[in-house]
Amino acid sequence: MTAQATDPSIHTPAGSPHFHFKGGVLHAEGVSLQKLGQALGTPLYVYSRAALATAFNSYKEAIGTRDVLVCFGMKANSNLAVLKEFARLGSGFDIVSGGELARVLAAGANPAKVVFSGVGKQVWEMQAALNAGVKCFNVESIPELKRLSAVATEMGKSAAVSLRVNPDVDAKTHPYISTGLKENKFGIAIEEASAAYALAASLPGIAVVGVDCHIGSQITEVEPYLDALDKLLKLIDELKVQGIVLKHLDIGGGLGIKYDDETPLAPRVLLDKVFAQLEARGYASLQLVMEPGRSLVGNAGVMLTTVQYLKHTEARNFAIVDAAMNDLMRPALYEAWHGVLPVVPNSGANAPASTLYDVVGPVCESADWLARGRQMALNEGDIIAIESAGAYGFVMAGNYNSRTRPAEVMVDGDKYHVIRQRETFEDLIRGESCLP
Ligand code: LLP
Known about the structure:
The chain has 436 residues and is an alpha/beta fold. It has twelve helices and 21 strands. The chain has helices at residues 33-40, 49-63, 80-89, 98-106, 123-132, 142-154, 190-202, 223-241, 267-280, 294-297, 330-334, 425-429, and strands at residues 19-22, 25-28, 31-32, 44-48, 68-73, 92-95, 114-116, 136-139, 159-166, 188-189, 206-212, 248-250, 287-290, 301-312, 317-321, 340-342, 355-360, 369-376, 383-386, 407-412, 415-420. A hairpin with a 2-residue loop joins β2 (25-28) and β3. The relative contact order is 0.17. It binds ligand LLP. Ligand LLP binds next to α10 and α11.
């Protein structure tokens, strides 16, 4: 892994141009992250509104005039302000729970642009989605299909269905975030898909409308997508012979971002190839659906944290900060790499010695680290930014060690808005009661 340079003149944040150094201080758009951290306290998630728009527009521009619905994989970041922003930009949403549906509705988004994924949909969630009028259910198993048929029939409704097919392709990503292989719990095996469609077409309360797949996350190569697309198109050919005609094809999410030295797959590169394949196979008129999560928000956010102690031991040097694995779980869970930037890098004659640090939190677990082996000149009290924290950051945060979850802030030009208050101790114990 690369050592982190501390000189802002030679280091560009891995993230987006919307996080940049100005006068020796890291800014989000026009707002100093030093001032923000001091004003609101840390740990603190900070998002850039312009970065969200830039990311969404990179899809829009790649789409041009084609019939493509982008459904933000909102599990990556489900703050209402973020959802509202994407809804305003024209996005639909990929949801995986009744809770996410409730958020989409609370954000005032259009349920007709919502696809409902997930392997464990419960009856109440199906009912809520049918009542809301979602675009379709991405059905992941035969038992789910049967249950949905029963629920819809009882409600006197018809459920639009796309079967999530598992194309058995290797997305070449971390095993925990790869989902398109045979051994994964997701989707219906491609070999069984055609029989599953025949069943779906025969069931009451079900209207077959599409096919989908999602092969994994943080994908940086185009081939896995094209392999999956090829398999899905062959299936669509087969279905046509059976008299089952689909309206849309959903290729899922998964486009990677730059955390370190990755070269992300640009939406345009993927889409140009996908459109070419659709045209070559005679499916240019099929609506395309996509479910990007990480690539829309990942580099639109950082997490600020303050150095509490510098602890030098024989084996390692630790920068003990006020954020922990409960605030950003990715390093502990996936050994994920996130860039670390002192918000005001120390330099000059009085600067502390540049040292190789492990950035760790206060939680009582050895897995509680945020970054390892980073070369930095730090003082206690310094605020540092953990980069690329906009996706799967706050949403995966918890309260382990009775730690309150961080606040979230959206920067917009030279203004900022608190879009989620920091939790309080009262929030932590709400709902708990002692024995009589
Ligand atoms: N659609 C479905 C059905 C999904 O399961 C996912 C992500 C997405 C779309 C969005 O994928 P994306 O574009 O964000 O790659 N917590 C992990 C990532 C888990 C991804 C789960 N599914 C991480 O922090 O890396």
